[in-house]
Design a protein that fits this description.
heterodimer; A: alpha/beta; two-stranded antiparallel ribbon; 9 helices; 7 strands; 11% strand; elongated; B: alpha+beta; Beta Polymerase, domain 2; 3-stranded antiparallel beta sheet; 20 helices; 18% strand; globular; binds iron/sulfur cluster
């Protein structure tokens, strides 16, 4: 769609503008265009980083203690370690969260619930596995009731080993996740 | 005062021939095998004549070599005397069945359901034998029996195989071999039970009633458990509890580990009170071994267990305040900040924040660092002043008082009957504290009060907890003054194999009475470990407490119990 189709402009300026480009696109197409087009342009240019920047700095996590690591998660979210500094705030409902912290063992009885919680979270979402239990079953590796292969069920982005990991390690994992969000290297494209 | 041999002779004279076998371990412990036909009468006799008003739990044991199963009933008294009677009932391994005590003792219900789903022992006359901890897919495989095939066998290296489920996920399972299915070792068709959902929906009687789900993930719950309430308007008519969402099978796993490795698992039972869990397990094993703990080690254990009690009460109170105050997390943050100071004290000794594995058989792992007393002396007065401030704050705040007074009232009578434990019991005015009832370590030499409440409502329970912190601080101060120099471990090496025997050992966990029943068959691994956790008992009392309250009070009542579902599920 040419610019002159939309508003009548003096011919001289019209010619001039049609020569201008932005990100290799004619300016005229950028200014008077559809939402889809805008999205395409955002994808192409450095402006896309704004989204990642926003996502990276507001990773709310789900308050969902499941094991010993859950207690460390409490502390991580509270004043002494203050995850708030990194924009990481505990929320109580999956509908408001971006990060699922898998803080302990997943049992056969809890797995369907956990899947539900994960499905309830809006995209884009990330998952951090904390502690040996969430990674591989940990000390309960031979229990009849524990799921050892959590990574087969959930797309885990960051693994934080330890039993339990210290809150400092939580912070490190979080920063790694933010780095990942910034690079847009995670598994889902959005 | 009644002692164990008097109890035994009383049973023997009342029911000649009912006691098949007996052992009086000390004044406080009685072990007796009771004729399975007489168990109900013996229990009635104990309760009515001998003041055994505290049904403390029961344990199942699978004696595969003798081809029989055993149910051990643990009976005690709320302060009338200090005897704990362990009554065993035997039943053959084929179609095991014993008489249910659930109609006699209200709280026997859950213990028997657990034994049934784990061992397959039927309880005659039980009001509702439904699964409690296990998910439906495991019912019928009786995982705690000794011949359960689901475990990877470490000696033969047999491992699970990957199976693709219909939904496309990979699961690791131990498929029964065709030979096993034929031999009947695996139940081919699982018995059918109404699910939890179906059971609760049966209770809906009219159109104006509905079921509200709180959990398994909910801001209220300190770990996953499902609390459903049947409401009519704003009032709760009935509560339903479903637990077992984090059932790890610790008791079974401990049977597959050496004695020392078992300590690691006690840590992970209740992770905010790992030191008292350590103590409970080690104490029981020491009892079988006949080990004496050096005095310095006893003092170190007391100091650390009391520190652990302080931090546990702080996090418990904080959780409660998040629930009732709701607005943001401010009160919670205050508690956590204070708790961090205690945690760093514990960490300076044990090297870990939560899972310490610090208490060892006959002693402790390492000595206190040099500056520990100094650090304590600077931290404890601060905590004390804070706690005094909190107590004052709660007492003065009119809104808080209005909100919490006469909410969730548990009378002393009821509290005893339902078998609730710890601060929740003491808030009702029953001075029942294991540190006094079953004194261990150096507690008899120390001076401390058992804190009791008056009304047994939510405000009382929280107040009790806070005042207990002050008492703990007082205990630690005394210990620091008196702690002698000396060894912290026994001189002799601890044997790898523990002689055959059994012991029941009780400690006062931050949440109440915790007991461990440990059986050794002379090997390098425990034959059976049964944990009688305090929160298991407390959780069971929640549904009746909720009847008739407002929906808004449900969280307050549940929060004031200071929960740790991990220890309830094990
Ligand atoms: S990794 Fe260790 S500390 Fe974390 S939940 Fe598992 S057992 Fe507990």
């Amino acid at each position: 769609m040419g610019i002159s189709d939309v508003i009548p402009v003096p011919v001289a300026i019209d010619d001039e503008i049609e020569k201008w480009t932005i990100f290799g696109q004619p300016v005229a197409e950028v200014w008077f265009t559809t939402t889809e087009k805008i999205h395409q342009i955002i994808e192409m240019g450095p402006i896309k980083n704004i989204f990642n920047w926003g996502r990276k700095n507001s990773v709310y996590f789900l308050m969902q203690p499941m094991g010993c690591c859950g207690v460390e998660m409490f502390v991580f979210g509270a004043a002494p370690y203050d995850s708030d500094r990194f924009g990481c705030i505990p929320r109580n409902t999956p509908r408001q969260t971006d990060v699922m912290i898998m803080s302990g063992y997943i049992t056969r009885k809890y797995l369907p619930v956990f899947k539900n919680l994960w499905e309830e979270m809006p995209e884009p979402k990330w998952c951090i596995a904390i502690g040996e239990c969430a990674i591989s079953g940990g000390p309960f590796y031979d229990s009849y009731n524990i799921i050892q292969n959590t990574a087969d069920y959930f797309p885990i982005d960051v693994f934080i080993p330890g039993c339990p990991p210290r809150p400092e390690q939580f912070l490190e994992g979080l920063i790694n996740l933010q780095e990942k969000i910034k690079q847009r290297k995670d598994k889902r494209d959005y | 005062m009644t002692n164990a041999s008097e109890v035994l002779s009383s049973i023997q004279s009342a029911f000649p021939g009912a006691v098949l076998d007996s052992r009086v371990e000390s004044d406080r412990r009685l072990w007796a095998t009771i004729d399975s036909k007489k168990i109900l009468d013996v229990c009635k006799h104990l309760t009515n004549k001998l003041n055994f008003d505290h049904y403390s739990g029961s344990a199942g044991v699978d004696w595969i070599a003798r081809n029989e199963m055993e149910v051990v009933e643990i009976m005690a008294s709320h302060g009338a005397h200090k005897v704990v009677a362990m009554l065993k009932v035997k039943t053959p391994r084929e179609n095991p069945s014993v008489k249910s005590l659930a109609n006699l003792y209200w709280n026997a219900n859950w213990y028997e359901r657990e034994i049934w789903e784990m061992f397959g022992i039927n309880f005659e006359g039980h009001p509702g034998l439904y699964p409690l901890l296990l998910s439906d897919q495991l019912i019928g495989s009786w995982p705690w029996r000794k011949d359960f095939k689901g475990y990877p066998d470490l000696t033969t290296g047999e491992r699970a195989v990957a199976i693709t489920t219909p939904e496309g996920y990979t699961e690791y399972r131990f498929p029964p071999t065709p030979a096993e299915v034929e031999a009947g070792a695996v139940v081919a068709e699982r018995p059918k039970y109404p699910t939890f959902r179906e059971r609760e929906e049966r209770e809906i009687k009219s159109d104006s009633e509905m079921i509200m789900h709180l959990g398994p993930q909910h801001a209220m719950v300190p770990g996953p458990f499902l609390l459903d309430v049947l409401v009519e308007g704003e009032r709760v008519k009935k509560g339903f509890l479903d637990v077992g969402y984090i059932h790890k099978g610790i008791e079974k796993i401990m049977e597959n580990r050496t004695w020392l490795q078992g300590i690691v698992y006690t840590d992970r039972m209740c992770y905010v009170a790992s030191l008292s869990n350590n103590e409970c397990y080690c104490g029981a094993v020491e009892k079988i071994l006949g080990l004496e703990v050096p005095e310095r080690a006893q003092y170190i254990r007391v100091i650390l267990e009391e520190l652990s009690r302080i931090q546990s009460h702080l996090i418990g109170t904080g959780e409660f305040l998040t629930l009732v105050a709701g607005v943001g997390y401010a009160p919670w943050q205050y508690m956590i900040i204070d708790r961090e100071r205690i945690i760093s004290l514990i960490e300076s000794v044990t090297g870990a924040r939560l899972t310490h594995t610090f208490v060892r058989f006959g002693g402790v792992r390492n000595d206190l660092p040099d500056d520990f007393a100094e650090k304590c002396k600077s931290t404890l007065p601060y905590i004390k002043s804070r706690i005094n401030e909190f107590i004052e704050l709660f007492a003065q705040d009119a809104i808080y008082q209005k909100r919490m007074e006469n909410v969730g009232v548990l009378s002393a009578e009821d509290a005893k009957r339902v078998g609730i434990a710890g601060p929740a019991l003491r808030a009702s005015g029953v001075a029942y504290d294991m540190r006094v009832e079953d004194p261990i370590l150096v507690y008899p030499d120390l001076d401390f009060k058992v804190i009791v409440g008056t009304k047994g409502d939510c405000a009382d329970r929280v107040d009790c907890r806070l005042r207990e912190i002050l008492e703990s601080i007082y205990i630690i101060e005394q210990c620091l003054d008196r702690i002698p120099a000396g060894p912290i471990k026994p001189e002799a090496k601890i044997p790898k194999k523990v002689p055959a025997g059994e012991a029941y050992y009780r400690v006062e966990d931050p949440r109440g009475e915790m007991g461990m029943y440990v059986i050794s068959d002379g090997g390098d691994k425990p034959y059976r470990v049964k944990v009688r956790g305090p929160f298991y008992a407390t959780l069971q009392t929640l549904p009746p407490l909720l009847e008739g309250v407002y929906i808004a009070d449900v969280v307050a009542i549940a929060g004031s119990m200071d929960g740790c579902p991990s220890e309830a599920d094990r």
